[in-house]
Amino acid sequence: MSLQEHAFADVADVRGRLKETGYLADEAIATTVFLADRLRKPLLVEGPAGTGKTELAKALAASVGAELIRLQCYEGLDESRALYEWNYKKQLLRIQAGTGEGSDAADWRSTHDDIFSEEFLLARPLLAAIRRDAPTVLLIDETDKADVEVEGLLLEVLSDFQVTIPELGTISASRRPFVVLTSNATRELSEALKRRCLYLNLDYPSAAREKEILLARVPELPEQMAEALVRTVRALRAMELKKAPSIAETIDWGQTVLALGFDSLNEEEVKSTLGVVLKHASDQARAISQLKLGAN
Predict the structure, then answer these.
(1) 85, 99, 191, 202: which has the highest count of C-beta atoms within 10 A?
(2) Residue 78 contacts residue 62 (beta carbons within 8 Å)
(3) What integer pLDDT is reported at residue 201 of this predicted model?
(4) Domain AAA+ ATPase, which positions (predicted)?
């Protein structure tokens, strides 16, 4: 089933196919994904870092057999990195070959037309996704980290799924990619961008759901140990940390205690493996001083 023809039959189909990839979607996630597919609208997923936003896009691509094309946003991202640029080194070599001794104006015109052809075009993620004929999921990751000017570039792509290249004209998508934008909400995205998207807020899951996710990804982990890990992770997230543990780090911790053969989570075992979930020395010091580790 291709994304062009709608990827999912219904909400239950979304949940079932995402689950096959290892991603456990609740009703809100599955419903929003289904509507984004059915209405052919981009999906904006917002929430704290580490709540599974990027993983949702990866699972979506895997569930429908689509290629994932990722645009990682950052401060200073510009059109040449997001959309396209010309292969300047190759163009220079072509110019040198075509404008040697004895060349005339006609030769230069021919060379000029040649160097601004498809052969010299380097497609970046946005253009690459638009030009693909096969099913594609375009992930625009951490959109809030890009400069405001980049949003103007995204508006044309998300409104008409087309890109205008002055030297080549307008390139329109023959098959619309499924677009997922993620944001950690470090800044407010423009209303114009939001209007073009369906919106999904992803927060940390409940204890029961995180335990379900942990056991699905680390099935050999004893249930009692999973409960202890989730309880400890949730206590860590309640502290004022530089970086709260993500769901992925909960899974890493589960795999860690399993690999080490721990059958309980006492104070010494937490201290020895705390670096799996907390990546700042100050966060680890705060956790050790505030957690009642012996109770776990």
Answers:
(1) 202
(2) no
(3) 96
(4) 39-203
Total domains present in the chain? 3
User: H-helix or E-strand containing 121?
Assistant: strand 121-123
Residue at 31: amino acid letter: T
Kindly tell me the burial class for residue 62, based on how many C-beta atoms sit within 10 Å of its own C-beta (0-12, 13-18, 19 or more).
Answer: middle
Element holding 130 (H helix, E strand): helix 125-131
Q: Are residues 278 and 227 in the same domain?
A: yes
DSSP 294: G
With CA atoms as reference, report the closest residue to 65 among 141, 4, 24: 4
Give residue-wise pLDDT tens across range 188-210. Answer: 999 999 999 999 999 999 999 99
Output the pTM of the full model.
0.84
Position 237 scores a pLDDT of 95
User: Where is the domain boundary, 201, 216, 243?
Assistant: 201
- Residues 212, 187 share a domain: no
Assigned domain for 263 exists: yes
Q: Find the range with the poorest average confidence among 24-33, 160-169, 254-263.
A: 160-169
